[in-house]
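Help! Submission page says 'invalid entity' but I think these are all valid:
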Amino acid sequence: MKSSPTTTTVFLLLLLCLLHSSASTPTGFPTEALPTKSGYIPVNPKTNSAIFYLFYEAQNPTSPLAETPLLFWLQGRPGCSAMTGNFFELGPYRVVSSDGESISLEPNLGSWNRILGLVFVDTPIGTGFSIASTHEELPRNQLSIARHLYAAVTGFIESDPLFRNRPIYFAGQSYGGKYAPAIGYYILKQNQKLPVEKQVNLKGIALGNGLVDPLTQVKTHALNAYFSGLVNERQKAELEKLQQKSVELVKMGKWSEAADARFKVLDTLQNVTGFATLYDYTMRTHYQSILVDKFLSSAEVKRAIGANESTVYKECNNAVLAALNADVMKSVKYMVELLVKNIKVLLYQGHYDLRDGVLSTEAWVKTMRWEEIERFLMAERKIWKVRGVLAGYVQKWANLSNAVVLGTGHFVPKDQPLNSQAMIEDWILDQGIFASELERDVSSDSRASF
Ligand SMILES: *[C@@H]1O[C@H](CO)[C@@H](O)[C@H](O)[C@H]1NC(C)=O
Ligand SMILES: *[C@@H]1O[C@H](CO)[C@@H](O)[C@H](O)[C@H]1NC(C)=O
Ligand SMILES: *[C@@H]1O[C@H](CO)[C@@H](O)[C@H](O)[C@H]1NC(C)=O
Protein backbone atom coordinates (compact mmCIF):
# COMPACT_ATOMS: atom_id res chain seq x y z
CA MET A 1 0.00 0.00 0.00
CA LYS A 2 1.23 3.40 -0.98
CA SER A 3 0.65 5.94 1.79
CA SER A 4 -0.11 9.57 1.08
CA PRO A 5 2.33 12.25 2.29
CA THR A 6 -0.14 13.34 5.00
CA THR A 7 -0.49 9.83 6.45
CA THR A 8 3.28 9.52 6.46
CA THR A 9 3.64 12.86 8.22
CA VAL A 10 1.02 11.96 10.80
CA PHE A 11 2.71 8.61 11.31
CA LEU A 12 6.12 10.24 11.71
CA LEU A 13 4.73 12.80 14.13
CA LEU A 14 3.09 10.02 16.16
CA LEU A 15 6.34 8.09 16.20
CA LEU A 16 8.22 11.17 17.32
CA CYS A 17 5.72 11.75 20.11
CA LEU A 18 6.05 8.14 21.22
CA LEU A 19 9.83 8.27 21.13
CA HIS A 20 9.80 11.51 23.03
CA SER A 21 7.40 10.35 25.73
CA SER A 22 9.36 7.16 26.29
CA ALA A 23 12.50 9.21 26.76
CA SER A 24 11.25 11.74 29.25
CA THR A 25 8.36 13.75 30.56
CA PRO A 26 8.48 17.50 29.86
CA THR A 27 10.42 18.12 33.11
CA GLY A 28 13.21 15.81 32.10
CA PHE A 29 11.85 13.15 34.40
CA PRO A 30 12.75 9.92 32.55
CA THR A 31 9.68 7.73 32.21
CA GLU A 32 11.64 4.71 33.39
CA ALA A 33 12.21 6.62 36.63
CA LEU A 34 8.46 6.88 37.24
CA PRO A 35 7.15 4.76 40.08
CA THR A 36 5.28 1.58 39.21
CA LYS A 37 2.50 2.79 41.48
CA SER A 38 2.10 5.59 43.97
CA GLY A 39 -0.50 7.54 45.85
CA TYR A 40 -2.31 7.99 49.12
CA ILE A 41 -3.80 5.44 51.49
CA PRO A 42 -6.26 6.75 54.11
CA VAL A 43 -5.32 5.87 57.68
CA ASN A 44 -8.36 7.12 59.55
CA PRO A 45 -11.93 6.72 58.26
CA LYS A 46 -13.01 9.78 60.29
CA THR A 47 -10.48 12.23 58.83
CA ASN A 48 -8.61 12.95 55.59
CA SER A 49 -5.27 11.83 56.99
CA ALA A 50 -3.44 9.64 54.52
CA ILE A 51 -0.05 8.11 53.97
CA PHE A 52 1.81 8.74 50.72
CA TYR A 53 3.77 5.87 49.19
CA LEU A 54 5.85 5.36 46.10
CA PHE A 55 6.40 1.84 44.79
CA TYR A 56 9.02 0.54 42.36
CA GLU A 57 8.63 -3.03 41.20
CA ALA A 58 11.72 -5.24 41.10
CA GLN A 59 13.84 -4.57 38.00
CA ASN A 60 15.25 -8.10 37.58
CA PRO A 61 13.28 -10.37 39.89
CA THR A 62 14.75 -13.83 40.47
CA SER A 63 11.32 -15.26 41.31
CA PRO A 64 7.78 -14.88 39.93
CA LEU A 65 6.52 -11.42 40.95
CA ALA A 66 3.81 -12.91 43.17
CA GLU A 67 6.63 -14.39 45.31
CA THR A 68 9.15 -11.57 45.03
CA PRO A 69 9.82 -9.92 48.41
CA LEU A 70 8.52 -6.40 49.11
CA LEU A 71 10.63 -4.06 51.20
CA PHE A 72 9.12 -0.98 52.85
CA TRP A 73 11.62 1.82 53.53
CA LEU A 74 11.08 4.04 56.59
CA GLN A 75 13.14 7.20 56.88
CA GLY A 76 14.69 8.37 60.12
CA ARG A 77 14.53 11.55 62.19
CA PRO A 78 10.91 12.22 63.14
CA GLY A 79 9.11 14.03 60.33
CA CYS A 80 11.71 13.47 57.61
CA SER A 81 10.52 12.17 54.28
CA ALA A 82 11.31 8.83 52.66
CA MET A 83 11.77 10.80 49.43
CA THR A 84 15.28 11.55 50.70
CA GLY A 85 15.81 7.80 50.97
CA ASN A 86 14.43 7.40 47.47
CA PHE A 87 16.14 10.20 45.54
CA PHE A 88 19.31 10.56 47.64
CA GLU A 89 20.07 7.05 48.91
CA LEU A 90 18.63 3.76 47.63
CA GLY A 91 16.00 4.44 44.98
CA PRO A 92 16.46 3.51 41.30
CA TYR A 93 17.16 7.15 40.34
CA ARG A 94 19.03 9.73 42.37
CA VAL A 95 18.92 13.51 42.14
CA VAL A 96 22.33 14.86 41.19
CA SER A 97 23.84 18.19 40.30
CA SER A 98 27.18 18.87 38.69
CA ASP A 99 27.17 22.58 39.51
CA GLY A 100 24.94 22.75 42.59
CA GLU A 101 22.30 24.54 40.50
CA SER A 102 20.84 22.47 37.71
CA ILE A 103 19.48 19.12 38.78
CA SER A 104 18.90 15.85 37.01
CA LEU A 105 18.15 12.22 37.71
CA GLU A 106 20.82 9.56 37.42
CA PRO A 107 20.29 5.78 37.52
CA ASN A 108 21.52 4.16 40.74
CA LEU A 109 23.28 0.85 40.09
CA GLY A 110 23.00 0.04 43.78
CA SER A 111 19.24 0.52 43.90
CA TRP A 112 17.47 -1.74 46.37
CA ASN A 113 14.76 -2.64 43.84
CA ARG A 114 17.02 -4.79 41.68
CA ILE A 115 15.44 -8.06 42.83
CA LEU A 116 13.00 -6.67 45.42
CA GLY A 117 9.85 -4.60 45.16
CA LEU A 118 10.60 -1.37 46.99
CA VAL A 119 8.03 0.85 48.70
CA PHE A 120 8.95 4.27 50.09
CA VAL A 121 6.53 5.34 52.78
CA ASP A 122 6.17 8.85 54.19
CA THR A 123 5.53 8.13 57.85
CA PRO A 124 4.20 9.34 60.22
CA ILE A 125 1.35 11.42 58.78
CA GLY A 126 2.43 15.02 58.26
CA THR A 127 5.77 13.85 56.85
CA GLY A 128 6.78 14.54 53.23
CA PHE A 129 3.68 14.18 51.05
CA SER A 130 1.63 12.37 53.70
CA ILE A 131 -1.37 14.25 55.01
CA ALA A 132 -2.24 15.03 58.63
CA SER A 133 -5.77 16.45 58.74
CA THR A 134 -5.22 18.23 62.01
CA HIS A 135 -2.31 19.00 64.27
CA GLU A 136 -4.00 16.97 67.04
CA GLU A 137 -3.82 13.86 64.91
CA LEU A 138 -0.02 13.89 64.67
CA PRO A 139 1.28 10.73 66.38
CA ARG A 140 3.01 11.10 69.73
CA ASN A 141 4.17 7.53 70.18
CA GLN A 142 5.18 4.41 68.29
CA LEU A 143 1.82 2.70 68.79
CA SER A 144 -0.12 5.36 66.92
CA ILE A 145 2.56 5.46 64.21
CA ALA A 146 2.30 1.67 63.87
CA ARG A 147 -1.52 1.82 63.64
CA HIS A 148 -1.36 4.27 60.74
CA LEU A 149 1.41 2.34 59.07
CA TYR A 150 -0.54 -0.89 59.42
CA ALA A 151 -3.49 0.71 57.62
CA ALA A 152 -1.13 1.85 54.87
CA VAL A 153 0.70 -1.46 54.51
CA THR A 154 -2.44 -3.61 54.50
CA GLY A 155 -4.11 -1.11 52.16
CA PHE A 156 -1.17 -1.42 49.80
CA ILE A 157 -1.09 -5.22 49.96
CA GLU A 158 -4.81 -5.44 49.28
CA SER A 159 -4.62 -3.03 46.34
CA ASP A 160 -3.27 -5.67 43.96
CA PRO A 161 -3.66 -9.48 43.97
CA LEU A 162 0.02 -9.59 42.96
CA PHE A 163 0.95 -8.28 46.42
CA ARG A 164 -1.14 -10.64 48.54
CA ASN A 165 1.37 -13.36 49.34
CA ARG A 166 4.69 -11.67 48.87
CA PRO A 167 7.21 -11.86 51.73
CA ILE A 168 7.23 -8.52 53.58
CA TYR A 169 10.27 -6.73 54.99
CA PHE A 170 10.75 -3.34 56.63
CA ALA A 171 13.95 -1.33 56.68
CA GLY A 172 14.21 1.63 59.03
CA GLN A 173 17.10 4.05 59.19
CA SER A 174 18.11 6.01 62.30
CA TYR A 175 14.91 6.95 64.17
CA GLY A 176 13.27 4.55 61.69
CA GLY A 177 15.04 2.03 63.93
CA LYS A 178 11.95 2.54 66.07
CA TYR A 179 9.33 2.54 63.31
CA ALA A 180 10.40 -0.82 61.88
CA PRO A 181 10.26 -2.73 65.21
CA ALA A 182 6.99 -0.95 66.07
CA ILE A 183 5.21 -1.95 62.84
CA GLY A 184 6.74 -5.45 63.01
CA TYR A 185 5.53 -5.90 66.59
CA TYR A 186 2.09 -4.56 65.71
CA ILE A 187 1.81 -6.96 62.76
CA LEU A 188 2.81 -9.98 64.88
CA LYS A 189 0.13 -9.06 67.43
CA GLN A 190 -2.51 -8.57 64.71
CA ASN A 191 -1.53 -11.79 62.94
CA GLN A 192 -2.25 -13.76 66.13
CA LYS A 193 -5.88 -12.60 65.92
CA LEU A 194 -6.37 -13.12 62.21
CA PRO A 195 -7.00 -16.09 59.92
CA VAL A 196 -3.93 -17.00 57.85
CA GLU A 197 -5.27 -15.45 54.65
CA LYS A 198 -5.61 -12.06 56.39
CA GLN A 199 -2.19 -12.09 58.02
CA VAL A 200 0.70 -9.97 56.81
CA ASN A 201 3.45 -12.27 55.54
CA LEU A 202 6.12 -10.56 57.63
CA LYS A 203 9.59 -12.07 57.23
CA GLY A 204 12.08 -9.58 58.60
CA ILE A 205 13.14 -6.12 59.70
CA ALA A 206 16.40 -4.33 58.99
CA LEU A 207 17.63 -1.41 61.11
CA GLY A 208 20.31 0.88 59.68
CA ASN A 209 22.20 2.94 62.28
CA GLY A 210 19.08 2.59 64.35
CA LEU A 211 17.99 4.35 67.49
CA VAL A 212 16.44 1.42 69.35
CA ASP A 213 17.34 1.64 73.02
CA PRO A 214 18.28 5.33 73.46
CA LEU A 215 19.08 5.11 77.17
CA THR A 216 21.87 2.61 76.48
CA GLN A 217 22.94 4.31 73.28
CA VAL A 218 23.26 7.83 74.66
CA LYS A 219 25.89 6.56 77.11
CA THR A 220 28.31 5.56 74.35
CA HIS A 221 29.21 8.90 72.72
CA ALA A 222 31.95 10.00 75.10
CA LEU A 223 33.78 6.68 75.02
CA ASN A 224 33.38 6.31 71.27
CA ALA A 225 34.74 9.81 70.59
CA TYR A 226 37.58 9.34 73.06
CA PHE A 227 38.84 6.10 71.60
CA SER A 228 38.43 7.50 68.10
CA GLY A 229 40.87 10.24 69.13
CA LEU A 230 38.30 13.00 68.68
CA VAL A 231 38.16 14.33 72.25
CA ASN A 232 40.63 14.48 75.12
CA GLU A 233 40.12 13.18 78.63
CA ARG A 234 38.62 16.43 79.91
CA GLN A 235 36.17 16.68 77.01
CA LYS A 236 35.30 13.03 77.52
CA ALA A 237 34.40 13.77 81.15
CA GLU A 238 32.30 16.74 80.05
CA LEU A 239 30.39 14.61 77.54
CA GLU A 240 29.88 11.91 80.17
CA LYS A 241 28.31 14.47 82.47
CA LEU A 242 25.91 15.57 79.74
CA GLN A 243 25.04 11.97 78.92
CA GLN A 244 24.35 11.26 82.58
CA LYS A 245 21.95 14.18 82.62
CA SER A 246 19.89 12.59 79.86
CA VAL A 247 19.93 9.24 81.70
CA GLU A 248 18.73 10.83 84.93
CA LEU A 249 15.92 12.68 83.18
CA VAL A 250 14.76 9.40 81.64
CA LYS A 251 14.75 7.80 85.09
CA MET A 252 12.55 10.66 86.33
CA GLY A 253 10.19 10.12 83.41
CA LYS A 254 10.97 13.57 81.99
CA TRP A 255 11.04 12.31 78.45
CA SER A 256 11.11 15.58 76.54
CA GLU A 257 13.84 17.05 78.71
CA ALA A 258 15.80 13.82 78.33
CA ALA A 259 15.55 14.11 74.55
CA ASP A 260 16.77 17.70 74.73
CA ALA A 261 19.66 16.57 76.93
CA ARG A 262 20.61 13.94 74.37
CA PHE A 263 20.54 16.61 71.71
CA LYS A 264 22.91 18.68 73.82
CA VAL A 265 25.36 15.76 73.97
CA LEU A 266 25.38 15.57 70.18
CA ASP A 267 25.54 19.33 69.74
CA THR A 268 28.51 19.53 72.09
CA LEU A 269 30.28 16.70 70.31
CA GLN A 270 29.74 18.46 67.01
CA ASN A 271 31.04 21.74 68.41
CA VAL A 272 34.19 20.36 69.98
CA THR A 273 35.11 18.26 66.94
CA GLY A 274 34.31 20.98 64.41
CA PHE A 275 32.77 18.42 62.07
CA ALA A 276 30.30 19.47 59.39
CA THR A 277 28.10 16.57 60.46
CA LEU A 278 28.15 13.75 62.99
CA TYR A 279 26.55 11.46 60.44
CA ASP A 280 29.94 10.80 58.89
CA TYR A 281 33.17 11.99 60.50
CA THR A 282 35.03 11.85 57.19
CA MET A 283 32.71 14.44 55.58
CA ARG A 284 33.96 18.03 55.43
CA THR A 285 30.83 19.54 53.93
CA HIS A 286 27.09 19.18 54.42
CA TYR A 287 24.97 16.63 52.61
CA GLN A 288 23.31 17.99 49.48
CA SER A 289 19.91 16.47 50.22
CA ILE A 290 18.49 19.97 49.62
CA LEU A 291 18.66 19.02 45.92
CA VAL A 292 15.79 16.63 46.57
CA ASP A 293 13.70 19.48 47.98
CA LYS A 294 14.46 21.51 44.90
CA PHE A 295 13.53 18.64 42.62
CA LEU A 296 10.26 17.99 44.43
CA SER A 297 9.23 21.65 44.39
CA SER A 298 8.23 21.34 40.74
CA ALA A 299 4.51 20.83 40.15
CA GLU A 300 5.26 18.62 37.16
CA VAL A 301 7.50 16.34 39.20
CA LYS A 302 4.86 16.11 41.90
CA ARG A 303 2.29 15.22 39.26
CA ALA A 304 4.64 12.64 37.78
CA ILE A 305 5.04 10.84 41.10
CA GLY A 306 1.35 11.05 41.99
CA ALA A 307 1.72 13.54 44.84
CA ASN A 308 -0.68 16.38 45.52
CA GLU A 309 0.61 19.37 43.53
CA SER A 310 -0.47 21.88 46.12
CA THR A 311 1.59 20.23 48.86
CA VAL A 312 4.74 22.20 49.62
CA TYR A 313 7.35 19.51 50.02
CA LYS A 314 9.85 19.81 52.86
CA GLU A 315 12.55 17.29 53.70
CA CYS A 316 11.57 17.42 57.38
CA ASN A 317 8.46 18.67 59.13
CA ASN A 318 9.27 20.21 62.50
CA ALA A 319 5.71 19.89 63.78
CA VAL A 320 6.01 16.10 63.48
CA LEU A 321 9.37 16.25 65.24
CA ALA A 322 7.94 18.31 68.07
CA ALA A 323 4.97 15.96 68.50
CA LEU A 324 7.40 13.05 68.92
CA ASN A 325 9.96 14.75 71.14
CA ALA A 326 8.79 12.86 74.22
CA ASP A 327 9.07 9.57 72.31
CA VAL A 328 12.71 9.95 71.27
CA MET A 329 14.25 8.44 74.43
CA LYS A 330 11.74 5.58 74.73
CA SER A 331 13.06 2.10 74.03
CA VAL A 332 11.71 -0.37 71.48
CA LYS A 333 14.21 -3.06 72.49
CA TYR A 334 11.42 -5.27 73.90
CA MET A 335 9.81 -5.24 70.46
CA VAL A 336 13.05 -6.41 68.83
CA GLU A 337 13.24 -9.16 71.47
CA LEU A 338 9.84 -10.48 70.39
CA LEU A 339 10.59 -10.08 66.69
CA VAL A 340 13.87 -11.99 66.75
CA LYS A 341 12.04 -15.05 68.08
CA ASN A 342 9.71 -14.97 65.11
CA ILE A 343 11.37 -13.34 62.12
CA LYS A 344 14.80 -12.29 60.86
CA VAL A 345 16.39 -9.13 62.21
CA LEU A 346 19.31 -7.35 60.53
CA LEU A 347 21.22 -4.54 62.22
CA TYR A 348 23.69 -2.68 60.02
CA GLN A 349 25.88 0.27 60.92
CA GLY A 350 27.90 2.59 58.74
CA HIS A 351 31.33 2.70 60.33
CA TYR A 352 31.85 6.50 60.26
CA ASP A 353 28.64 7.41 62.07
CA LEU A 354 29.05 9.30 65.36
CA ARG A 355 25.33 9.39 66.15
CA ASP A 356 24.03 5.81 66.08
CA GLY A 357 27.10 3.86 65.11
CA VAL A 358 28.78 0.53 65.75
CA LEU A 359 29.49 0.88 69.48
CA SER A 360 26.04 2.33 70.06
CA THR A 361 24.45 -0.82 68.63
CA GLU A 362 26.86 -3.25 70.33
CA ALA A 363 25.90 -1.65 73.64
CA TRP A 364 22.18 -2.38 73.50
CA VAL A 365 22.41 -5.70 71.68
CA LYS A 366 24.37 -7.28 74.52
CA THR A 367 21.59 -6.35 76.95
CA MET A 368 18.92 -8.18 74.92
CA ARG A 369 16.68 -10.62 76.71
CA TRP A 370 16.72 -13.50 74.32
CA GLU A 371 17.59 -17.11 74.99
CA GLU A 372 20.11 -17.10 72.12
CA ILE A 373 21.94 -13.90 73.10
CA GLU A 374 24.96 -15.61 74.70
CA ARG A 375 25.49 -17.69 71.60
CA PHE A 376 25.04 -14.63 69.41
CA LEU A 377 27.70 -12.74 71.38
CA MET A 378 30.06 -15.71 71.06
CA ALA A 379 29.45 -16.10 67.32
CA GLU A 380 32.36 -15.28 65.05
CA ARG A 381 32.39 -11.83 63.51
CA LYS A 382 33.22 -12.68 59.91
CA ILE A 383 35.04 -10.69 57.29
CA TRP A 384 32.51 -9.73 54.62
CA LYS A 385 33.57 -9.22 51.03
CA VAL A 386 31.64 -8.11 47.98
CA ARG A 387 33.08 -9.01 44.58
CA GLY A 388 36.28 -9.96 46.32
CA VAL A 389 36.72 -6.62 48.09
CA LEU A 390 36.46 -6.02 51.83
CA ALA A 391 33.03 -4.54 52.59
CA GLY A 392 32.73 -4.96 56.35
CA TYR A 393 31.98 -7.51 59.04
CA VAL A 394 29.01 -9.69 59.78
CA GLN A 395 28.09 -11.49 62.97
CA LYS A 396 25.14 -13.84 62.79
CA TRP A 397 23.42 -16.30 65.03
CA ALA A 398 19.92 -17.73 64.66
CA ASN A 399 17.63 -14.91 63.47
CA LEU A 400 19.93 -12.02 64.36
CA SER A 401 22.56 -10.53 62.05
CA ASN A 402 24.73 -7.55 62.88
CA ALA A 403 26.73 -5.96 60.05
CA VAL A 404 29.33 -3.22 60.02
CA VAL A 405 29.54 -1.46 56.68
CA LEU A 406 32.92 0.12 55.94
CA GLY A 407 33.41 3.31 53.94
CA THR A 408 30.18 4.98 55.01
CA GLY A 409 28.51 6.91 57.78
CA HIS A 410 24.85 7.05 58.76
CA PHE A 411 23.48 6.95 55.20
CA VAL A 412 24.74 3.53 54.22
CA PRO A 413 22.98 3.11 50.84
CA LYS A 414 24.10 6.57 49.78
CA ASP A 415 27.83 6.02 50.20
CA GLN A 416 27.97 2.27 49.61
CA PRO A 417 25.24 1.63 47.05
CA LEU A 418 26.55 -1.65 45.67
CA ASN A 419 27.63 -3.11 49.00
CA SER A 420 24.38 -2.11 50.66
CA GLN A 421 22.48 -3.70 47.78
CA ALA A 422 24.50 -6.92 48.15
CA MET A 423 23.86 -6.86 51.89
CA ILE A 424 20.09 -6.43 51.75
CA GLU A 425 19.67 -8.97 48.93
CA ASP A 426 21.88 -11.63 50.53
CA TRP A 427 20.21 -11.14 53.90
CA ILE A 428 16.72 -11.48 52.41
CA LEU A 429 17.67 -14.49 50.30
CA ASP A 430 19.71 -16.17 53.10
CA GLN A 431 22.76 -16.39 50.90
CA GLY A 432 26.44 -15.45 50.92
CA ILE A 433 27.58 -14.40 54.36
CA PHE A 434 23.96 -14.48 55.54
CA ALA A 435 23.44 -18.15 54.61
CA SER A 436 22.61 -20.38 57.56
CA GLU A 437 25.59 -22.43 58.81
CA LEU A 438 24.40 -25.56 57.05
CA GLU A 439 23.93 -23.95 53.66
CA ARG A 440 27.07 -21.89 53.65
CA ASP A 441 29.99 -23.18 51.63
CA VAL A 442 33.63 -22.25 52.05
CA SER A 443 33.24 -18.91 50.34
CA SER A 444 31.16 -16.25 52.06
CA ASP A 445 31.32 -14.00 49.01
CA SER A 446 28.31 -14.83 46.86
CA ARG A 447 29.34 -12.34 44.19
CA ALA A 448 32.95 -13.53 43.79
CA SER A 449 32.18 -14.72 40.28
CA PHE A 450 30.47 -11.52 39.08
C1 LIG B 1 27.46 24.88 69.63
O1 LIG B 1 27.87 25.98 68.86
C2 LIG B 1 26.83 26.82 68.43
C3 LIG B 1 27.40 27.85 67.49
O2 LIG B 1 28.49 28.49 68.06
C4 LIG B 1 26.16 27.46 69.66
O3 LIG B 1 25.08 28.26 69.26
C5 LIG B 1 25.64 26.32 70.56
O4 LIG B 1 25.10 26.87 71.75
C6 LIG B 1 26.75 25.35 70.90
N1 LIG B 1 26.16 24.22 71.60
C7 LIG B 1 26.63 23.74 72.74
C8 LIG B 1 25.87 22.61 73.38
O5 LIG B 1 27.63 24.16 73.30
C1 LIG C 1 -4.44 18.58 47.58
O1 LIG C 1 -4.21 19.33 48.75
C2 LIG C 1 -5.11 20.41 48.90
C3 LIG C 1 -4.63 21.25 50.07
O2 LIG C 1 -4.25 20.48 51.14
C4 LIG C 1 -6.51 19.88 49.05
O3 LIG C 1 -7.42 20.93 49.23
C5 LIG C 1 -6.88 19.04 47.84
O4 LIG C 1 -8.12 18.45 48.01
C6 LIG C 1 -5.82 17.98 47.57
N1 LIG C 1 -6.08 17.37 46.30
C7 LIG C 1 -6.17 16.05 46.12
C8 LIG C 1 -6.40 15.59 44.73
O5 LIG C 1 -6.08 15.26 47.05
C1 LIG D 1 13.65 -17.62 63.93
O1 LIG D 1 12.56 -17.31 63.12
C2 LIG D 1 11.83 -18.42 62.69
C3 LIG D 1 10.86 -17.95 61.66
O2 LIG D 1 11.59 -17.48 60.54
C4 LIG D 1 11.21 -19.07 63.90
O3 LIG D 1 10.44 -20.20 63.50
C5 LIG D 1 12.30 -19.49 64.86
O4 LIG D 1 11.74 -20.00 66.05
C6 LIG D 1 13.23 -18.37 65.19
N1 LIG D 1 14.42 -18.90 65.83
C7 LIG D 1 14.83 -18.57 67.06
C8 LIG D 1 16.05 -19.27 67.57
O5 LIG D 1 14.31 -17.75 67.75
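Support: the input was valid. A stray whitespace character was the problem, and the output above is from the cleaned input. Residues 264, 267-268, 271 surround 2-acetamido-2-deoxy-beta-D-glucopyranose (ligand 1) (CB under 6 Å).
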